[in-house]
Amino acid sequence: MTELRKDPITGRWVIVCVDGNRQLPELEPVGTDGDRENCPFCEGHEDRTSPEIFSYRSKGTYPNTPGWFVRCIPNIRPLLSANVDLGRRGLGLFDMMNSIGAHEVIIETPHHDHDFYNSSLEQMEKILSAYQDRIVDLKKDERLKYVLVFKNRGKRAGSLHIPHAHSQIIATPVVPIRVKQELRGTLKYFKMKDRCLFCDLIRQEVSDGVRVVDQNETFLCLVPFAARFPYECWILPKRHQSQFSQMVGGELRDLAQLFKRTFIRLHRVLNDPPFNCMLHDAPNPVPQKGVWQTLDQDYHWHFEVIPRVTRTAGFESGFEWGSGFHINPIPPEKAVEDLRAVSLED
């Protein structure tokens, strides 16, 4: 039996197989290859990458040398570049501009076989802090309207080259359509109720408890009601914050704790799955003063984690592409049961 569920934020409809009869395919764990000698992201191979933009490192060590904890470098094949003019122009009905922006890589650890699930809490905090630092710096460029932080792990998730744990940051002169859908949905709700949709969602999910995977004092991990994919998880701050840079006090450490616990659960339930992890942050308000007037009140930053454990084919593939529907074979409530049941002990 299936059920149509509507995402209250974007208005997207999802087909959920609530009877849970459909099975996920057997997947090989992502793992990491053992070729540390040729991995450009391993410690000691700093000369094999672009010069670093910044790093967290031990005292007394120097840029582009060993001794770092997290490094940020320009992508060797950047999709966008800051060294061009915006160059907006038209050709009849068609609009275009130069590919202005930034494309960076965060090397998350000097260790070849570490990832979110087996990094230390201190290392996880450094990775999230690096995200913050780069977002704040890139938003100083008034030409850039959006900064996207994302991580692709495994070939099925789009990571085709280097298995060493890394994230990417892309800053663009336009707000992505997926983010615009959220912005429109949250603004519409705010105009009706003078409240943040995400804050109301968090209160309801915490009260119900049905789709809550884990939580601590300041953050919540849940499987969304209209989850598009099996075991999709969202991580959100309980305190209203529109921008990722607005965390204060010990909130970053609390986020690191919940992040690590979430990825341990996914690792153990799904046998080291490929995944995409994306930060949905507020756009840069500077380039469009007067446009995002209630942004700090109506938007709520969050991470979305999507394990890539299904592959559509035949009818479903054509149906999904043609209709815009997602088909989720695992009910969110069943996913929560599986993830909660994981022991977090080593």
Distance between the termini: 38 Å
* Helix and strand pattern: EEEEEEEHEEHHEEEHEHEHEH
Instruction: Please compute the radius of gyration using only Cα atoms.
Output: 20 Å
Summed over residues and divided by their number, the pLDDT gives a mean of 88
**Which range best describes the helical content: under 10%, 10-25%, 25-40%, 40-55%, 55-70% or over 70%?**
25-40%
Superfamily (CATH H level) name: HIT-like
Spatial shape: globular
Named at the architecture level, the CATH assignment is: 2-Layer Sandwich
Strand order of the largest sheet: 3-4-7-9-8-13-14-12-11-10
Q: What summary fits the major beta sheet?
A: 10 strands, antiparallel
Low-confidence stretches: 313-317
Q: Tell me the total number of β-strands.
A: 15
Level-1 CATH class name:
Alpha Beta
What proportion of the residues form beta strands (DSSP E)? 15-25%
How many helices? 7
Query: Which structural class should the secondary elements be placed in?
Result: alpha+beta
Tally the structural domains. Answer: 1
Q: What is the name of the CATH topology?
A: HIT family, subunit A
